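Kindly inspect this today.
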Amino acid sequence: MIKGLRLRHYSADGAKATIEQLVDLYLKVYAGGGEFYSEERYRIQLDLHMQRVGWELVAATVERELVGYIYGFPLPLQTRWWEGIQEPVPPGFTEEDGTRTFALSELLVDSAWRRQGIATALYDELVAGRTELRATLLVRPDNIAAQSAYHSWGWIRVTTLRPSWENAPTFVVMLRTTEMS
């Protein structure tokens, strides 16, 4: 592990002071990714996600520099998370009650700090102690490195999904059940 790596948990209220850093790192990681990865769209997404009950972020810093972060939240009873599924799923798959599924929405690490275990440390820290029965995430089909990491952490591919957001790409839906850590 990296000397001086610090992981810190934030609630939505606590993370408000870090918004500019979160957005800056997001834009750096997704530079050149197209309209979907714009600053305006991400600020809207982040704001909406931070309003979710149970939203939690874990930030990774080295000498006070933000090098990565991960965040997610439990899916509420009335969620739009599953809208846009493109392949059949088992009956009841998309039913939520606020405690069934944890949605891992972002996991990113600055390119200069990749392949040093930071993503794994962030992931382990966020899911430790989660009480939901399962977790879900969306990953780009062409992001083979991320999919490989998720597979190594016990995630499985379930279907594909194209969100209704403007310029949204199609994503692979992955799931991890029961004990997440």
